[in-house]
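Sequence in, structure out.
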Amino acid sequence: MVEGLTLALTQAGPLAVSADLHVLPGQTLALVGPSGAGKTSLLNAIAGLVPAVGRVQVGDDVWQDGRQGLPAWRRRVGLVMQGGGLFPHLDALGNVMIAQGRRDADAALALLAAVQLDGAAARRRPAQLSGGEQMRVALARALAREPALLLLDEPFAAVDRPVRRALVALVAQMRVMSAAPMIIVTHDLEDAAGIADTAAFMVDGRIVEQGPHVLADPESQLGRWLNG
């Protein structure tokens, strides 16, 4: 049995991406690198939102083989986009329920409670929620997919430090609630070090270094890049 996520993908455009990754069940990989390195493009390719070539396998399920791949709606991905990506015309409860295979308001409310949003917030639309609350809804929606893989794109970027600490704790809780492997894109290496078991450093569309040592070792390629 193949466990976790096995990935070998290339994408020609709009940004050329080449990546080879393996993430174990219950493991979190931090994908770090400079702006424009291709981190978001890679997540979108894994989720099936943009065309790519290669292989994506999660557990025993092959999502992509060569140029042939499952459509995005058939990939059991819990995706948290930059800014949350909530539907503005739906309230928080509706945003979570739309990700469910079978609509279940009680289960959706339970997920919102798990990310510390009460019943009143569940009836508010995204414009009526703070940035931190919107991200909580996005995290609950990702779990509502009962995902085989979790992909989080800069979930802490638009919130201040106190809210960020709470969201970091929630992301750590997500790993307990779901045994799925997780890839999290972040620019904050302190947050990454607090969440991730391993890391991959991406530059110009390519994974140039990966492993549990990447974040902590000042002599790693990432460490040397940070130090100029």
